[in-house]
Design goal:
The chain has helices at 18-31, 69-83, 104-113, 120-129, 145-158, 179-186; strands at residues 2-8, 36-44, 58-65, 91-95, 134-138, 163-164, 175-178, 190-192, 204-207, 214-216, 219-227, 233-236. The protein has 248 residues and is an alpha+beta fold. Helix 4 (120-129) packs across helix 5.
Length: 248
């Protein structure tokens, strides 16, 4: 079955980040042959004085498949109990999307978490209404991380939110590819221009500096722009070159 695993607020200023905690949890699940997991997405949530967070108030989510759901839930909960940083307020959410009667309440919760202050009671009420589609748990501190963990599952499920964790870096700055070869080499689904139109697969692309992939339309997406100084070849855009609104 398909699942989503999302965690939030597992770190402090000295510890590894929440994304690294999730990647290590994914590796442990695979080592135990409990699940196969995909890439991690980072989901930016609302910044507000009433919301406690370490640095950016973002949750981390991955998709996966398993035939051993109960063991996955137990393993993840035990892992969170022993791998979250001192002083953190961790939350875990495991979602089975095929068990949802309707995805809209969870999608709406994810959207709301980017725009307003939500509470643990809000998260618990929604999770309770979703029955056996959601496994939500607190793992220390205030447990406020369940808010972001539940929201992150909704945002990842939407297929239209988040950044892919990690940076795309050329092995040698100035690499020249066709767009199609770039996608194959760097495991990207598509390259779009800033008007969100596909860049032709046979067009030339020069990879000069690190770039960032976004999760849009259920695809790993890189944006590119033409470079007049390189005879109109494309170059993948860095985080600082992308519209700020796309990064939230």
């Amino acid at each position: 079955m398909n699942i989503f695993i999302c965690i939030d607020d597992t770190d402090n200023l000295e510890s590894i980040g929440t994304g690294e905690v999730l990647e290590e949890l994914m590796a442990a699940l695979e080592a135990q042959q409990l699940a196969q997991c995909s890439f991690v997405t980072r989901h930016q949530l609302f910044i507000h004085p009433d919301i406690a967070y370490t640095s950016h108030n973002s949750s981390m989510c991955c998709a996966g498949t398993t035939q051993r759901l109960e063991e996955v839930v137990a393993f993840c909960r035990n892992y969170m109990d022993s791998h979250c940083a001192e002083g953190s307020d961790p939350g875990l959410c495991i979602l089975v999307p095929d068990r949802l009667a309707s995805p809209e309440p969870l999608l709406a919760f994810g959207r709301a978490a980017k725009q307003t202050v939500l509470t643990k009671a809000d998260a618990r009420t929604l999770a309770g209404s979703l029955g056996d589609a959601v496994f939500l748990s607190e793992h220390g501190g205030t447990g406020d991380g369940i808010i972001g963990a539940l929201a992150g599952c909704g945002l990842r499920m939407s297929g239209n939110d988040g950044r892919i964790k990690g940076k795309l870096k050329p092995a040698a700055p100035g690499e020249v590819w066709t767009v199609a070869d770039f996608c194959r080499t760097y495991h990207i689904d598509r390259v779009l221009d800033l008007d969100r139109q596909p860049v032709p697969p046979d067009d030339r692309l020069i990879f000069k500096e690190q770039s960032k992939a976004l999760y849009q339309d259920f695809q790993k997406t890189v944006y590119a722009a033409r470079t007049p100084e390189d005879d109109g070849a494309w170059h993948p855009l860095s985080k600082k070159e992308l519209p700020k609104s796309w990064m939230n």
